[in-house]
Amino acid sequence: MILGFFVAQRYGWLEKLFPKVVIFKVDYAKQKATGHLVLKVLLINRTRESISFNNPTLAFFNGNQKREFIIKNIGGQNYFPITLTPGTGHKFNIDAQKFYSSIADLEKYKTIQMIITSTTGRSYKSIKWPVWLTFRRI
Fold this sequence. Notes:
Layout (H helix, E strand, L loop, with lengths): L1 H9 L2 H5 L4 E9 L6 E9 L5 E3 L3 E6 L2 E6 L11 E3 L4 E7 L1 H6 L8 E7 L5 E3 L3 E2 L8
Antiparallel strand pairs: 1-2, 2-7, 3-6, 4-5, 4-8, 8-9, 8-10
Protein name: DUF4352 domain-containing protein
């Protein structure tokens, strides 16, 4: 049952089964040229009302320890807080290597999760993904 849910979420089948939800999808990939870990984030509003989202949070895990970083701008532009009208979406990429290179102690944290909250307080989370399990190349 759990494996079926994981496969359905990974291949996007849940998006087709539940059309009146907010889709928050994170793909983990490595760049071919540099080997940097890149998070490709897709946020789609399929509900009937407009929803505003606060800044996303990138969380690094090492067992029970957790380090969270709020993403203030992406590529020099400030997108958040963002309001998505019904049927619209937003896509952006985050280079996780910038966090690893600027904070030396972060190399011990081998699991990553993205969290985004709406202004109403609802939280959307990706699954915790081990960094070493990233095989996709872009």
